[in-house]
Amino acid sequence: MHHYEPSLSFWVTHWARFICMVVLVVTGFYIAQPFIMPDADLSAPVNFLQAKLRFWHIAFGMLLFSATLIKTYLFFFSKSSSIERMSFSNVWSLKQWVSRIWFYLSLNGKLKDYGLYNPLQFVTYLGIYIALYGIIFTGLILAVHLYHNGMLGFLYPLLRPFEALLGGISNVRWIHHLLTWVFLIFLPIHIYMASFKHLYKKSYTKAHA
Ligand code: HEM
Fold first, then answer.
1. Looking at ligand 1, which atom is closest to the CA of residue 32?
2. Interior CA angle at 20 toward 18 and 25, to 5°?
3. Which of 28, 104, 141, 180 has the fewest CB atoms lying closer than 10 Å?
């Protein structure tokens, strides 16, 4: 088993997106169902908690968008990602699928490593990227209605046809909400499996030392 040291760009785009996702899930659920309310200020209506949290939601949404674009570029073109690109061949290897599924079923057996991701992992991450671009795309469709300058102003006429194609703004909001659950389900499994991999490697090397 080779030892993998993530590059700085890998590390930054990974943890930046983790922070974004935590902030986006919390603020997103607040937007959907405002679960706390500031005391009413009777002298002036200045308690715009929903608007403030929506602002932070969009800000972190843009950060997620940027980090995802950068990571996508790196995956295809950076030298440090060649080990990730190499993993693609696992997806076409029946041997890799069988040995990996057998490993998870039996928690035993030898694993053949090639590249960074096993086939199940590669296909899962591909699904996660489809969900990521889906939540970003629907998020942008929602956001062009809230802010009309700059990039969002530029995107407004381009995204309106897709809004119609997706069945209108209320449907877009529903799809965006549904995709949130992809990340809520993915994150604990991902954290568990990443920790498990390290623990397994440690006990494996100990047992064979
Ligand atoms: C992991 C990423 C994200 C999660 C988990 C997430 C989650 C959510 C949730 C749960 C809602 C409430 C939907 C509802 O009312 O039922 C929401 C609303 C919204 N999201 Fe996201 N979101 C994410 C990414 C983004 C991105 C990338 C953008 C834009 C760049 C964005 C823009 C918006 C906007 C503008 C709304 C407000 C819709 C409204 O005012 O009704 N979101 N988000």
1. 15
2. 100
3. 104
Read off the DSSP letter of residue 81. G
186 closest CA partner among 133, 131, 104: 131
The residue nearest atom 18 of ligand 1, judged by CA position, is: 28
Written as six digits, the tokens of 51 are: 């608007």
Contact 63, 13 (CB under 8 A): no
For the chain, which residues make up each domain, given as ranges?
8-207
- Give the tens place of pLDDT for each residue, 12-29: 999 999 999 999 999 999
CB 103, CB 109: distance < 8 Å: yes
Sequence-ordered list of residues with C-beta below 8 angstroms from that of 203, at least 6 positions apart, any chain? none
43-62: pLDDT as tens digits? 887 788 999 999 999 999 99
Residue ID of nearest Cα to ligand 1 atom 35: 143
* Range list of β-strands (E), the chain: none
170 and 105 Cβ atoms separated by less than 8 Å: no
Q: CA angle, corner 30, sides to 24 and 31, nearest 5?
A: 85
DSSP code for 93: -
Alpha carbon of 70 to ligand 1 centroid (Å): 21
pTM of the complete model? 0.91
Q: How far is the CA of 155 from the centre of ligand 1 (A)?
A: 17
| Helices 119-143, 94-106: crossing angle, 10 deg rounding | 90
Residue 26 host element (H or E) = helix 8-32
